[in-house]
Each structure stands twice: as structure tokens, then as C-alpha cells.
Amino acid sequence: MLDNGKAEGARKIKQIEKYCLRDIAIVSQGFTFSRSYQGKKNLKWNYFKVADIGINPNSKYLTNAINTISDITMEEIGALPFPKGSIVFPRVGAALFNNNKKILAQDGVVDDNVLVLTVTDTSKCWYEFLYYYLQGIPLAKWCNSGLVPVINTKTVLSQMVFLPPLPEQQKIAAILSTQDKVIELKEKLLAQKQQQKKYLMQQLLTGKKRLPGFNEKWKVEKFSEIFDFLSTNTLSRDNLFEGVGAIQNIHYGDILTKFNEVIDLDCVCLPSIKESAIPNNCATVKSGDIIIADTAEDLTAGKAVEVQNIGDRVIYSGLHTMLCRPKEQLFFDGWLGFYMNSEAYHKQLIPYIAGVKVMAISKSNIVKTYIAIPSKAEQAAIVEILSTTDHEIDLLQKSIEAEKQKKKALMQLLLTGKVRVKI
Questions:
Q1: How many whole angstroms separate alpha carbon 326 and alpha carbon 402?
Q2: What is the pLDDT of residue 302?
Q3: pTM, entire model
Q4: Left, alpha or beta for 80 (phi > 0: left; psi -120 to 50: alpha)?
Q5: Cα–Cα distance between 363 and 227 in angstroms, integer?
Q6: Spatial distance between the Cα atoms of 407 and 418, rounded to a whole number of angstroms
Q7: Phi-psi category of 321—alpha, beta or left, where left has phi over 0 and alpha has psi -120 to 50?
Q8: Cβ atoms within 10 A of the Cβ of 242, count?
Q9: How confident is the model at residue 165, as a pLDDT?
Q10: Beta-carbon neighbour count of residue 349 at 10 Å?
Q11: Gap between the Cα atoms of 90 and 102, Å rounded
Q12: Rg of the Cα trace of the chain?
């Protein structure tokens, strides 16, 4: 039960005590873990590295490590297990800025790039409450000022924390743990739905699985016979702004990281071009056009979006993109967006993607690929199934975000004492 603290505010507020971490906990560094000991599975002890902490960032417990070691190895490296309930986090490097902290689900070992905070005064501090409390403190706050970020153990131990009575800490931790379980459950449902979509795309966009009532052989046409290329611009992010301007722009980075296969401009906000940077001789995007990101840091180069519902908006295709317009009305809305992001089509691109620091595909190579063309009726049926799945995924993502905001609000209220939990 929650209480805003007004009825018995004075008495309850006094119950929140201020402690220095060094008075209730210790911080230890992990043990050196040479490569000769790595890569072994199913041994007695989990040996956690920074990579383990970063896996599944929304789970608070560390349960299974990529590496495990035996009692013999423990003795050889002079390691001792850290107790269950200890809080672990990266000690050095860029991983600090991800602010990942986890709790050991059972006794385990960590390497020397990991720090372990263990509660020593369990009469004053409940480890799960402390975990949630520390979530609001960026790891970067505990770093030195050098070129390579390293956490200073003394700085960690000097951190002040405010603790209500132990039973209240336990109840607060239980409330937040329940909220975490709600989020984890929905994230599992999301992962299942995303896997289902992947399977549907593999089956339906290749013709491996045909929908009832369709048995006509699919046509296959060369890219160069299907599309015309239109002019694009080379504007960087510096030339764009978030907001409504005269001309909007589709940037390759948004294609790679933000957009689904089909973007509905009635539902998606695009950045606009600054008035001083509006280019000349740039083609205007039309509904049904395909925009391909020709450059990426990896083999995601070639990812495409189909643009729909442009209406009266003026939109340009931006840096590192190819603007492609179908020559004929052969496609149902959405088919090309889904097909050109399918595994089957991307396999055609891979031999043509080249580069060292960045990967890219050229117009002269992409025209060598082929596009599958079922009847428009079959395209429509497939698009309907995939679009419905996308809608379900979108609803789950919004629901997860709402639950995360709810958790954030609970933490702000419960961990600060603004709202007290009745014991």
C-alpha cells in the first residue's frame, strides 16, 4: 500500500536515513581471466565479463555466463566467488556509458574489467533496493577525468544513499520487481512476434508457402527493367532540423535504424531541410517510390523503404540513398517494401556489397538483381498479413514503452521518499 506521507509525514520522513556506501557495502574488482580459460561451457562457476552485463539490458539478474570455469581453474587464477545478490557493473571503457548494472543471481566470478558491490550491513540495506537506487546514478559520475574512462572505487564508496527502513526497502523492491516482470513478459511477446514476422517473410515473400487460392507462377524481372533512378541530395544532418519545414528529407541513417519496410507519412515525422540548404535539381519523392540506403557500417547496406501517403508534402531523398521509381503499375502498395527487405532479396545484394570501413552497394551493381512479382491480388493478400503483424508489433512496442514510463515514475516516487510504502 502506498502513502503520500502527509498523514504521518514528519514521523515517516525521519525514518529515511542517509548513509555513505562505504558504511554499508564493499566494492571489489574481479580477477584476470586469460584467454586459455575462456570458451568453456557447463562447468561449475559462471565467469562473467563486461559482455555478459550488456546482454539483455532490461533484465536485472545475471544468470548464465558466456564462459564457465571449474574449481581447479578457480584455484589456479586465485579467484574467489562473489556472493549472490552482489551488484556488478563495468569498471573501464565505453561500456560505462551504457549504465548497465546487474545482480548476481547466484555466487559467481567476474573478470578484472568488472566491479562488484556487495552489501555488508544487511540490517540497514536490502540489495535489490540498492540496485534500483543506483539505477538513477550514471556510472560516468564515478569515473576519473582521463582519456579512458575508469571508475574510481573510492568515488563509488563515497556515494551517499538514502534508505528507508529495511521492510520498506523490501516492499519497494518487490513493487519495482513486479513492474520489471511485466516489462520482461511483454518484451518476450514482442520477440516472439518479431520472430513470427521474420518467418512469415521467409515463407510468403519467396513463394515457399502459398496462400489459399493462389497458384499462379510468379514473374521475375531484372531491377533495371522495373525501376528508374531519380536524383537525390547529399545533405548531412547539419542541414536538417526536427520540425515541419517546406521540404522534408529522408536520410539514409533513418532508413537503417528507424524506419520499417513501409513508411506511412501520415504516421511518421521526417526531418526538414533548413531553408538555407534546400538543394536545386532534386527529384520529389512520390507515393510508391523505393528509397535504398546504399551505405552502412555493415551488410545492412541496401536496406530499403517504400514510401506511402505522401499527400501534398514535398520530400527529397537524401545522403547515401538511391531513389527508385517503378516504371509500371505492377505492384500493390507495400509489396516492394517488404520484398526488398526480405532475406531472399538481400542474399542477392551481398555479393555486390563492398568496402573496408564502410560497406556500400552501387547503382551499377544493384541493377543486376531481380524482383519477384506475384499477381497483384496475391501481393495484396501477403501485404495484408505482414502489415497486420507490423501493427501488432507496433502496439506491443508502445505498450512496453508505457510500462517503462510507469516504472520510471514509480522509481522517482518510491526511491526518493515522495511516496512512502506502508509496512
A1: 39
A2: 96
A3: 0.83
A4: beta
A5: 11
A6: 15
A7: beta
A8: 9
A9: 94
A10: 20
A11: 10
A12: 27
The answer to whether the CB of 233 falls within 8 A of the CB of 319 is yes
Burial level of 360, CB count in 10 A (0-12/13-18/19+)?
A: middle
Which one-letter amino acid corresponds to residue 195?
A: Q
CA distance linking residue 60 with residue 71, whole number of Å: 27
pLDDT at 12: 43
* Residue 48 buriedness (CB in 10 A; 0-12 / 13-18 / 19+): buried
pLDDT at 423: 80
Q: Which residues of the chain have pLDDT under 70?
A: 1-14, 57-58
Q: How many helices (H) and strands (E) does the chain have?
A: 13, 25
Start-to-end CA span in the chain (Å): 8
Q: What is the spatial distance between Cα 415 and Cα 136, in angstroms, rounded to a whole number? A: 9
- Rounded CA-CA distance 305/147 in Å is 40
Question: What is the spatial distance between Cα 269 and Cα 245, in angstroms, rounded to a whole number?
Answer: 11
3-state secondary structure of 48: strand
Grid coordinates belonging to 389: 503483424
Q: Name the nearest CA neighbour of 67 among 101, 102, 109.
A: 109
For 66-153, strand residue ranges (E) read 67-69, 87-90, 102-104, 109-110, 114-119
